[in-house]
């Protein structure tokens, strides 16, 4: 079996040489072939397609965080080719969601002995979302984090504090097809998964393979509740959020809102259109 490893050398602000050494050592005595290449952050889509065409792998592996996973997944949608993950980023939300061990040995074992499973993907505006997309407060945090090139948890804390100083409620209209609701909210999340990369659970009943996603509306919260939003490791009080299951939606705002998809800031938008793509991606998960 042939494995192709797409390595993001800068994800999480950490050197990946230890991961590369672990990959080579793990496959040294196995009857498999491992090809490694580096992403450059400029022509990643083209580079991934080129490497896949050149090596014809049986499995493609993203080595990095959620952004790296997203880049590789985009090239594998609808192909049936299994996608693996080595969680080498700063926020490894999908690794948590999929139950991928955080260490090299454990996550490498999933690549060889794990089970492929079809998961849903959300088509959102001109993008795809594997994990979580949102407008409002968290998207503003992502903007500060990226535009200031802050790294690690300390950088994330700085971004949260900066966003809190200028937080404001959004006036939103959510069209679910059979019902339309209007709300004042700090943020609206399109959740394919259950939790953010920090471990904060916002969608406790989320399922990556149920053919739908959830629209999570965060209403007026205190500063302390907002802080818990980013670091609390259990579901939030239902009094402060509403959750609507959906297969397609349109979210409109009176004023343009900060918008992010899978941890990547996408600018300010006045409308978000989303629909689920059931079972569009095969991912490698730990064997039961």
From TrEMBL:
Q: How far does the signal peptide extend, from start to end residue?
A: none
Mention any one GO cellular component term assigned to this protein in its UniProt record: plasma membrane
Which InterPro entries would you find in this protein's record? ATP-NAD_kinase_N, Diacylglycerol_kinase_cat_dom, Lipid_Phosphate_FormReg, NAD/diacylglycerol_kinase_sf, YegS/DAGK_C
Q: Calcium among the record's keywords? A: no
Spell out the Gene3D superfamilies in the cross-references. Answer: 2.60.200.40, Probable inorganic polyphosphate/atp-NAD kinase, domain 1
Task: Point out the coiled-coil segments of this chain.
Answer: none
Stored Pfam families: DAGK_cat (PF00781), YegS_C (PF19279)
What are the protein's GO molecular function terms?
A: ATP binding; kinase activity
Q: Which residues form the DAGKc domain?
A: 1-128
Tree of life domain: Bacteria
Q: Which keywords label this protein?
A: ATP-binding, Kinase, Nucleotide-binding, Transferase
Q: What protein name applies here?
A: Diacylglycerol kinase
């Amino acid at each position: 079996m042939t494995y192709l490893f797409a390595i993001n050398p800068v994800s999480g602000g950490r050197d990946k040489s230890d991961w590369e050494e672990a990959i080579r050592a793990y496959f040294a005595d196995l009857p498999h072939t491992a090809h490694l290449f580096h992403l450059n952050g400029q022509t990643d889509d083209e580079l991934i397609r080129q490497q896949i065409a050149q090596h014809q792998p049986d499995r493609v592996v993203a080595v990095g965080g959620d952004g790296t996973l997203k880049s590789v997944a985009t090239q594998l949608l609808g192909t049936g080719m299994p996608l693996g993950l080595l969680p080498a980023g700063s926020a490894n939300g999908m690794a948590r969601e999929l139950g991928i061990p955080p260490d090299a040995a454990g996550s490498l074992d999933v690549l060889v002995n794990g089970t492929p499973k079809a998961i849903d993907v959300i088509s959102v505006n001109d993008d795809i979302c594997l994990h979580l997309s949102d407008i409002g407060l968290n998207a503003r945090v992502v903007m500060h984090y990226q535009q200031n090139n802050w790294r690690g948890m300390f950088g994330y804390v700085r971004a949260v504090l900066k966003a809190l100083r200028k937080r404001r409620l959004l006036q939103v209209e959510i069209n679910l097809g059979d019902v339309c609701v209007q709300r004042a909210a700090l943020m609206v999340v399109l959740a394919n998964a259950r939790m953010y990369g920090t471990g904060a659970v916002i969608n406790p009943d989320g399922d990556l393979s149920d053919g739908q996603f959830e629209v999570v509306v965060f209403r007026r919260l205190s500063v302390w509740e907002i802080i818990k939003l980013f670091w609390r490791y259990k579901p939030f009080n239902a009094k402060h959020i509403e959750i609507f299951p959906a297969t397609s939606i349109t979210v409109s705002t009176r004023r343009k809102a900060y918008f992010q998809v899978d941890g990547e800031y996408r600018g300010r938008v006045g409308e978000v259109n989303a629909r689920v793509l059931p079972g569009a991606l095969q991912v490698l998960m730990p064997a039961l």
